[in-house]
Design brief:
The protein is α/β, with parallel strands linked by helices. Helix content is 40%, strand content 11%. The protein is built from 14 helices and ten strands. Helix 1 packs antiparallel against helix 8. The N terminus and C terminus are likely disordered.
Length: 418
Amino acid sequence: MVPDDGSGTGDRGGVSVEATGDGAVLLDELRAAIGRYVVLPSEEALTAVTLWVAASHIQPALQHAPRLAVVGPTKGCGKSRVLDVLHETVHQPMMTVNTSPAVVFRVIGKNPPTLLVDEADTIFGPKAGDKEDLRGLLNAGHQRNRPAWRISGPEHKPTAFPTFAMAALAGIGDLPDTITDRAVVLRMQKRKPGERITPFRSRYSVPELHAVRDRLAAWLTPLRGTAAGLVPKMPVEDRAADTWEPLVIVADLAGGHWPTSARAACLAMTQHEAVQDEQTTLKTRLLRDIRRIFEQEGNKEALRSQDLLASLLADAESPWPDYGTKGLTAFHLSALLKDFGIRPANYRFEQGRQAKAYARNQFLDAWARYCPDPAQPVPAVGHEFAPVRPAQGKPPAPPSGSLPVGPPGGTAGPKPAR
């Protein structure tokens, strides 16, 4: 059973409140309460979070448990504050920052909690080997009847553990496609100087949010049977429809402006993610094209920015001549590569000529991660070039972060990126 002592799971099964009788008004109230404490990326995002919270109260009636991916480029974007507000409004919240996967497996049942996972990037990152069970649970739990089998008990019998549960995951950077494809994605940004929010203080914020939560549960819990029979008309298809259907069901139950608002938010946010996917695909194409150009140039240690750009634009079959309004520029190239940690720097070429250039060893890690060549293993980062000993009487190479400048006509190349 889920504890009911407020020790982290927040079971509220014993609460007795009267239903509001007006679902649309109640959702408006919840939306206003959430908007007081966090600045979300758009009005559609605020609508989506409101409906996601409400959908958590009808989880037993759902066939899909949509994820809520709360991501941002840096710290301080309000991701954890979103989880704070969710913790006080969703059905049976369970924080899983440091929770053992075994505990989560045993807590999920017919009436599952709502998982709230902070620092989700540590679960899916390269050093997350010890979180494999939790990672698998989060991937499988989007759809009902996808149990995880484990050997359990003193008799070591195979046991099926349910995985179906709604989950909100907050982290820095993008989460894996296996999560974002099944999620309503909030791309948080830092607040502008003029954007004001109400400080979140447990003394008065929690009672206010609990009052809304209790009325929400009293309204929706008796409607679980009705919700299970609804097949709403969706503006999207396939997995996006699976993810958004619970939110649209709640909107249809509420009535008023919510059915229209929910579908508008669904279209706007799924289209925004489609653009994000297209940008990701475009960046992968850029990495592949640059690798091809380096190979055509004999895998030189560095290529001038202008030469690399000219080679990209020379391919009429590529998207680069039509990129932006006037084709790909040096600024565009730098912006597209920035997320991979690749930047141009000063480099001295033959006859002492200095120019902005891209070092080949900066691309090795990105090539290995995003567009590996199965036919030709990529050398390990840091071992592409033999160490270059500074010429006697010359100052040592500058610290990493810029391409070192060698003696005129010399062969000093870029130091391996760290």
